[in-house]
Amino acid sequence: MRNRKRHGWASILIVTMLTVAACGNSGNTGESGQPQQQVEPVAGQETSAAGVESAFEPVEVQDVTGATLRFEKPVERIACIVSLCVDVLAELGMEPAAVAEGGVRTIASAPEFYGSAGETLPSIGGSFFEPSLEDIVTTAPDLVFGLQGVHDTLREGLSGVAPLYLANPKHYNDSLAVLETFGRLTGRTAEAEAAKQRFLDKLAQAAAASPKDKKALIIYGSDVNFSVITQSGLGGSVMAQIADYPWKVEKPEDDPYGEGAVPYSLERLIAEDPDVIFVESYAFGSDAVPISEQLAASPLWDKLSAVRRGQVHEVRSPIWGDGRGSRSLGILLDEAMAILYPGQS
Amino acid sequence: MSGSRPYRTGRAAMLPVLLLCLLLAVTMAAGLKWGSRVFDWSALSAILWAGGGGTLERTIVLDIRLPRILLGMLVGAMLAVAGTLMQGALRNRLAGPELLGVSAGSSLAIATITVLHLPVPFHLHPLLALSGGLLSGGAVVLAARSIGGTGMLLTGMAVSAMLNGMLVVLIALGTGNDVNLLYAYLLGSLANRGWEQVARLLPWCLIVLPIALGLARSVNLLQLGEETAAGLGVRVERIRLTVLVVSALLVAATVAQCGPIGYIALLAPHLTRAMTRAQDTRVVLPVSALCGAALLTLADQAARLWLEPMEIPVGVWTTLIGGSVFLLYIVLRRGGGQHG
To answer: Residue B3: pLDDT above 50?
Structure first.
């Protein structure tokens, strides 16, 4: 009797859990239960879909892992599980079919990208490292855009659902190459070319305007536990064009995965003594105590001139660190120039 | 406690103590001399003793390298003492602080801050890590009352496993940068610490280490077996709980400042027993503290200088080298039984 009662409760619990699981991703589907169609394209950036399709020729591309992807018609629905995807699509005047939560949603909702519209884009649950396959399938994308080194194992799970394109740019030229690739895949080569040129013009202008007499540093983390973005990191490759940026990976084995961000000795930072420190922060703009004040309170960090002179600046980690595309790098450039050389940018 | 092997006097420990002091002195000298700037001995001596050198040189030697070495010594000694006490009180040579749930609790606190991007000021991180460690350690101690040594070990393992599971959930929620930073903490590091951290740890050392040393005699009796110890007037459960509390305090204080640093607590007591050929906790405890200090300082200088300017968290080295040495030790001793 007691056992039967226990089994009864267990059955109710299982049914409830299954019901909750089945309803958990209702945000991705319309009332009919079908995947929600794309919301309105970004104003002023619409391209005629019919025109694009008629002019489209089959495209074959290779991603950074060497995987070959072939498309017979323009890619329209792209599921973004990495912030770079949002960046690229924004540059091309498209909207993601769905975005992963966390950092990807944050950048999609930033004013320079989709603003409030980014908050309502269909959601891919799970985590950054393991996005929900179920949500991706529900989105019915033509292509899934992920990060090499993180999402590689998704390819198998996505077979028969959608091809997976992986990227992980280490230099701004890599980011521009990804942009061009997606221009071809979506039939928006003109938009891709325009965005690329916009970024290169901005970079050239900034490099020309920069006296390069300031030593800059980009870090993320806390006072004792931090990483430095080196010249071989994406942000470092841009910063090196406009400032003295001496932070290097001396030996390849120091950065075996080519992350471009390595734990660095504070001793070396103090010896180099940068003029301006940019700290990538997720608490940017919140009510938290500014990192500049926190570092100034540290007896060790206070040895740095930048800290003593109040030249520690918090920047948006989702854009400076995670964005990885031409629009994010352009924002990095604008914000860095304004801080490094006020009045010249 | 081996009944067939008599207690050795402190005299047998003299040579190991001298060797460990020598190792510590050499490591300290090398750590002060080498780095992004290499100082010659006269310049180093001038900076240390005569107020010489420029501001930068003085900062590097006196504010970065010196406190880091001292911090390594303090942390190493505290971990080794915690390990020695636990191995003795639980009569299990594989017992270690990780069974207290302290490291897992502290790690969970830091993971929560890092992954959820909580706007907690940096200077509060160690305090929250300490609270997390003490809470989880306290939970283990409370749950382990009156259930014997094996029960305590199993309780510690269960609590640690639960907390580590929650940690994995948080890691899964993080971004790439979060996880990189979190790993650096989880591996344990002495990098970029200074006098601030030494000052935070020193009171714990001054208060808790003497208490730990005071427990040595009781731990000796516990090693004779519960019944014998009880027959000799030892209140077994009370002493065991006191040992757990003292160990938890020692470990929580170190984890809060440097993250969980593996293998020192396990390895130092074993090496000490092997070097001194002593089982007497009154001898093993202080020598083990010295051994832990020397091991961690040496590992940290290797971590700092090997790939300079990049910093490899010292916990990577202690795990790699400590794990290998421990494996070798077990093979040589043909097993890690209770009295190994």
So the answer is: no
Least Cα separation, residue A254 to chain B (angstroms):
7
**Domain A48-201 in CATH: superfamily?**
Nitrogenase molybdenum iron protein domain (3.40.50.1980)
pLDDT tens across B96-107, in order?
Answer: 887 888 899 999
* Domain A48-201 matches domain A210-340 at the CATH topology level: yes
Indicate yes or no: CB of A250 within 8 angstroms of CB of B309.
yes
Strand A143-147: give its sheet, edge to edge. Answer: A123-124, A98-100, A78-80, A143-147, A164-167
What ipTM describes this predicted complex?
A: 0.75
Q: Residue with structure tokens 């207690």? A: B7
Q: How many CB pairs below 8 A link A and B?
A: 128
**More confident of the two residues A47 and B216:** B216
* Token pair belonging to B319: 């795990």
User: Which range, of A123-137, A147-161, B313-327, averages the lowest pLDDT?
Assistant: B313-327
Q: Where are the domains of chain A?
A: 48-201, 210-340
The topology under which CATH files domain B10-333 is: ABC transporter involved in vitamin B12 uptake, BtuC (1.10.3470)
3-state secondary structure labels for all residues of chain B: CCCCCCCCCHHHHHHHHHHHHHHHHHHHHHHHHCCCCCCCHHHHHHHHHCCCCCHHHHHHHHHHHHHHHHHHHHHHHHHHHHHHHHHHHCCCCCCCHHHHCHHHHHHHHHHHHHHCCCCCCHHHHHHHHHHHHHHHHHHHHHHCCCCHHHHHHHHHHHHHHHHHHHHHHHHHHCCHHHHHHHHHHHHCCCCCCCHHHHHHHHHHHHHHHHHHHHCHHHHHHHCCCHHHHHHCCCCHHHHHHHHHHHHHHHHHHHHHHHCCCCCHHHHHHHHHHHHHCCCCHHHHHHHHHHHHHHHHHHHHHHHHHHCCCECCCHHHHHHHHHHHHHHHHHHHHCCCCCCC
Contact A202, A172 (CB under 8 A): no
CATH for the A210-340 domain, from 3.40.1160.10, 3.40.50.1980, 3.40.50.2300, 3.40.50.2000? 3.40.50.1980
Contact of A243 with chain B, judged by CB distance below 8 Å, is answered with no
Predicted confidence (pLDDT) per residue in B275-314, tens digit: 999 999 999 999 999 999 999 999 999 988 887 777 788 9
Whether this prediction's pTM lies above 0.90 is answered by no
Report the chain B residue with the minimal C-alpha distance to residue A250.
B309
On whether any CB of chain B is under 8 Å from the CB of A341, the answer is: no
Cross-chain residue pair B195–A299, CB shorter than 8 Å: yes
Between CA A319 and CA B195 the distance in angstroms is 35
Q: What is the identity of the amino acid at A136?
A: I
A284 touches chain B (CB under 8 A): no
pLDDT at residue A139, as a whole number: 94
Whether chain B has a CB inside 8 Å of the CB on A103: the answer is yes
Determine the pLDDT at residue A286: 64
Chain A interface, best mutation among B307, B308, B316, by max A CB count within 10 A: B307
Whether residue A287 lies within 8 A of chain B, CB to CB, comes out as yes
Could you give the residue ranges of the DSSP H alpha helices within chain A? 2-23, 49-55, 83-92, 103-108, 116-119, 133-139, 154-158, 172-186, 189-209, 234-242, 266-272, 291-296, 305-308, 317-320, 326-340
Give the tokens for residue A231.
């010249």
- Which of B168, B183, B190, B192 should we substitute to test contact with A (largest number of A Cβ atoms within 10 Å)? B192
Residue B54 contacts by C-beta under 8 Å, 6 or more apart in sequence? Answer: none
